[in-house]
Amino acid sequence: MSTKDLTLKASLTSKSEEETMQCARGFAARLKAGDIVFLQGQLGAGKTTFVKGLVQAFKLSPKKVSSPTFVLMNCYEGRLPIYHFDLYRLENPQTLDTVDFDDYFYGEGISLIEWPERLGGYAPEHYYLVEFQHQGEQQRKICISCPSKPRLKSSPSR
Ligand SMILES: Nc1ncnc2c1ncn2[C@@H]1O[C@H](COP(=O)(O)OP(=O)(O)OP(=O)(O)O)[C@@H](O)[C@H]1O
Ligand SMILES: [Mg+2]
């Protein structure tokens, strides 16, 4: 999916980690099984903080959230399984060949992906995009875009 298939839904300013988590909790209300969220922004922009807020919304402790360091993905079992990918440390793109993305992307859980640019050809067609921009030490701009068209329920949309 190119950015033309996304519609900007919200653009807001967060002035603290807690505000970023609150924003994520609000966004979580939109999400359902099989949804995929791309989290884009520079190092320290707030992507993992946003994941903590999302995880809270699914009735899990945000303390469970840590960026996967030695693996590409952590799974948190809440009301739904949440698959938290962090592709920053992906050294060899061929590692992705060993991941069965269909199980995650078209399954019963929600996929949250930091550094989605690194998915290359494995990028799904249908995703939400949350963009983070530094605006000083404590301030971040957060833009949330949603797919313009609804996802087909029964089959992968690609
Ligand atoms: N408004 C804010 N929202 C989110 N984090 C903030 C904010 N202000 C300051 N911070 C700080 O910025 C850092 C954000 O870290 P976080 O791990 O969420 O970033 P990240 O985008 O996941 O980075 P990485 O690419 O390294 O995984 C934390 O240290 C947090 O305390
Ligand atoms: Mg992170």
Topology readout:
Layout: E1 6-14, H1 17-28, E2 36-40, H2 47-57, E3 73-77, E4 81-86, H3 101-105, E5 110-114, E6 128-134, E7 140-147
Parallel strand pairs: 2-5, 2-6, 4-5
Antiparallel strand pairs: 1-7, 3-4, 6-7
The chain binds adenosine-5'-triphosphate and magnesium ion (MG).
Q: Can you tell me the overall shape?
A: globular
Instruction: Find the CATH topology.
Output: Rossmann fold
How many beta-strand elements?
Answer: 7
Work out the helicity level. Answer: 10-25%
Q: Give the amount of beta strand, in percent.
A: 25-35%
Question: Helix/strand-derived class?
Answer: alpha/beta
Look at the structure and give the CATH class.
Alpha Beta
CATH homologous superfamily annotation:
P-loop containing nucleotide triphosphate hydrolases
The Cα radius of gyration reads 15 Å
Bound small-molecule species = adenosine-5'-triphosphate, magnesium ion
Q: Give the strand order, joined by hyphens, for the main sheet.
A: 1-7-6-2-5-4-3
Mean pLDDT score: 90
How many structural domains can be distinguished in the coordinates? Answer: 1
Q: What are the secondary-structure elements, in order, as H or E?
A: EHEHEEHEEE
Q: Enumerate how many helices there are, as a single number.
A: 3
The largest sheet is:
7 strands, mixed
Give a quick set of tags describing it.
158 residues; alpha/beta; Rossmann fold; seven-stranded mixed β-sheet; globular; binds adenosine-5'-triphosphate; binds magnesium ion
Describe the structure.
This protein is of the alpha/beta class and 158 residues long. It has a single domain (3-88, 98-147), classed as Rossmann fold. Helices cover 18% and strands 28% of the residues. It is built from three helices and seven strands; from the N terminus they run βαβαββαβββ. The protein has a seven-stranded mixed β-sheet, covered by helices on one side. Bound molecules: adenosine-5'-triphosphate and magnesium ion.
